Amino acid sequence: MNKLLAPAALLALGAAALAGCTDNTATASVDGGIAVNATDDSCAVATASAPGGTLTFSVHNEGTKVNEFYLLAEDGLRIIGEVENIGPGVTRDLVVMAPEGSYFAACKPGMVGDGIRSPFTVTAAKDGQAVDADRAALQDQATGQYAAYVKDQSEQLLAGTTKFAAAFAAGKTEEAKKLYPQVRMHWERIEPVAESFGDLDPILDAREADLEEGQEFSGWHRAEKDLWAPKGYTPMAQAQRQEIADGMVANTKELATRAQGLEFTADKLANGAKELLDEVATGKVTGEEETFSHTDLWDFQANLEGAKIAYEDLAPLLKGNDDALDGQLKQNFASLQQQLDAYRVGDGFKYYDQLSQEQVQQLAAGVDALSEPLSQLTAAVVK
Predict the structure, then answer these.
(1) What residue numbers bound the domain in which 23 lies?
(2) Where are the alpha helices (DSSP H) in 207-356?
(3) Which of 94, 140, 185, 230 is 20–30 Å from 348 (CA)?
């Protein structure tokens, strides 16, 4: 949980050294590649560092499960490149352009969970490794990285929802309460994507106060109310809990399936980042999202992370074109994260109802300060 809640570290992405994927359909390694031996419980990378520029990871699956391999940014969330569906006995290559910085190499046996991770350092690039790319290529790079991120988060949301639903249906209240804010972070990081499925979003994430006449109260917030029962509330019977749990898993599975085939554009990424900050302003910082559990700050953190991922994927488009906006966004993201960090408790946060009105107002001011430059991002990356 700690790595999920850690503030996202910033990577210096220069136009001369780009973080992005190339065609990863090759099944054979190329000369000079970095060997990776993946098993069902290990991920052995031949070296822990390499010079910046073109990197080729030659991944051989020695296990019994289908595997995936990722190069992740220092925050452990943003995906620089990935290669999927590496069957037992198969070798596939991941080829990326990566600038100097800190990363994680990760294998994902069974293609589920956070994966088996190890630190990976990219040192200064060798002469001749600089790459010139036009804006169209940078936009393609950004959208490809973000699509991989959405896929990963939706898969982790499904795995977490399945675990939460089992605990909730079995009446394991304390376990379900612990899982609730942790799992919802995967939803909140990609909330604009989840909300784009107009048939699934209401039955998975509608708040009781927002229900329209005749609309059934189901999904996350129905379970939330039962777990943090308000005064006078009659708890659900086991059969009712099972029905809610089954619906959550089935609908999340459908959401994850649909998310696999989504295509993005640079303007959608930038607008989505702004939408995530709007979600914080209208729901999380007001305490309206998690009415019963008061776990709004977990949601706040996840919305902030999701917005920052989209911005960082788009950042190469700002280099040399709008450095002032890039610098302001970096500073304001860091400032808001610092504000939120003040309310950390263990691997989570204070409950929203423990904050004073003054503290809430300070957080709201931080959101406003970031929201203003973030509203300029779309125009800056599509021009």
Answers:
(1) 17-131
(2) 220-227, 238-260, 266-279, 296-314, 323-341
(3) 230
